[in-house]
Design goal:
The structure is a single chain. With 409 residues, the protein is of the alpha/beta class. It folds into two domains: 114 residues, Four Helix Bundle (Hemerythrin (Met), subunit A); 198 residues, Rossmann fold, CATH 3.40.50.300. It contains 13 helices and ten strands. The radius of gyration is 41 Å and the shape is rod-shaped. The structure holds guanosine-5'-diphosphate and magnesium ion (MG). Magnesium ion (MG) binds next to helix 7.
Length: 409
Amino acid sequence: MFSKLKEKLKNWTQEIIKKKVVDEVEKKAKEEIKEKKKEEKVKKKLTKEKKKEEKEQKKKKEEKEAEKIQEEIKPVETHELIIPEKKEFDEEERKIGEQIIEDIKKEEEKAGFFKKVFSKITKIKISEEEFEEYSKELEMLLIENNVALEVAEKITEMLKEKIVGKEFLKKEIEAQIKFAFEDIIREILIEPFDLIEKIKLKKAENKPYVILFCGINGTGKTTTIAKIAKLLNAEKLSCVFAAADTFRAASIEQIKQHGEKLNVKVIAHEYGADPAAVGFDAIKYAEKNKINVVLIDTAGRMYTEKNLMAQISKIAKICKPDTKIFLGESVTGNDATEQARNFNETIGIDGIILSKADIDEKGGTALSVGYITKKPILFLGTGQEYDKLESFDKEKFIEKLGLNKGEEN
Ligand SMILES: Nc1nc2c(ncn2[C@@H]2O[C@H](COP(=O)(O)OP(=O)(O)O)[C@@H](O)[C@H]2O)c(=O)[nH]1
Ligand SMILES: [Mg+2]
C-alpha cells in the first residue's frame, strides 16, 4: 500500500541535505573570494611601496656607477658570440601538462571540500518553501492511493506543522519525517471499539444487541452479515438474521442460503414488504428466544435516492439499533467516502466495515472514511469466505503502508 511513499520521502530528504551542502559550499566560496580580494589589496599596496623603494635604490646605484665610469674609462673589448642552448622540450606541451595537473588538483580539492562541508552539517531545518515543494508531491501520491482530496490536504497540513522549522539531525531526518507521518495516521484513525465486548454487556442484561447494516448495492452487506454470524458463533453468541432487503431480486433467498449454511434463523417477509417491520419482528423473535444478536440486512441504496434514505431512517427509528454499521468497499476511495459521509449525516453511523480489502492495493479509503465521519473502522473484509473478516488494527494498518519495509514498497 502507499507504494512509493517511502521512496519519495527518501528522495526528498536527500534533496534537502544536498541543497544544504551546496548552499554551504557557495557561502564558503563567497567568503573565500572576499578574503582573497582583501589579501590582494594588501599585497598590491605592499608591492607598490616595495617598487618605490627599489626604484630609489636603483637610481642611487646608477648614480654611483656613473661616477665610477667617469673615473676609469677602459677601452671597449670585443665580445664573444653566444649561441642559445637548444631546448629539451616543447614549450606548448609543458604548459598543457601543467594546466592538466593543476585542474586535477583543483577537482580533488573540490571533492574534499564537499565532503568536509557534508560532514560538518549535522542538523537540518526544513523551510516552508522546501516543504511546499514536497507537499504537492505528497498530496498527489495520497490522492493516487485513494485518499480523498480534503483528507490529503489535512495530512500535509498536519505534517507541515510537525516538521517545518524544526531542527533534525541529518542522519535521522528521513526516519523522523516517517514517524511524523505515522503519527498523523494514528491521530486520524479512530480507535475501534470492541463490538463483541459490547454485545456481551447487553447479553448480561438479557437483551438482544441489534446491528443495522447500510450502504450502497454490492458492497458486501449480506456477505459480511454472514461473516459476523460465524464470528459470533465462535464467541458462543447466538444471532438471527432480519431479511430487511425486501427490494432486490433474490436477496431473501441469498440470506436464507447463508442462514442454512450457518444454522442461523432468518426472519423474512414478502418482497416489497416494509423493511422496518421485518427488523422489528426479528428483534421480537430474539427477545422471545433469548437470541443475543439481531443482524439487520438492508437493500443497497444510493444517498441521492431521497425515498430510500427516508426508508433507512425509518428502519433505524423503529428498530433502535445499538450499532449502525456502514459498509463500503476499500477499492472505491472517494466514492466510499462520499457514501459514508451521507449515511452518517442521515442516520448517524457508529462504525465502518470496509470490504474487499483483499483486492485493494492502495489503502487510502480507510483513512478517508475514518477522517470524514470521525467513526472507527471496525473490520476489514478480506475475501468472499466466511472467515475472511479481520478486526481493524491501527498499528497493523500503519505497518502495511510499507514505510518500514525495504525498497520494494
Ligand atoms: N473479494 C471480496 N469480495 C467480497 C468481499 N465481501 C463481499 N464480497 C463479494 O461482493 C459481492 C457482493 O456482496 P453482497 O454481500 O451481495 O453485497 P450487498 O449487495 O451489499 O449485500 C459478492 O460477490 C461477495 O462475494 C470481500 O471482503 N472480498
Ligand atoms: Mg445484500
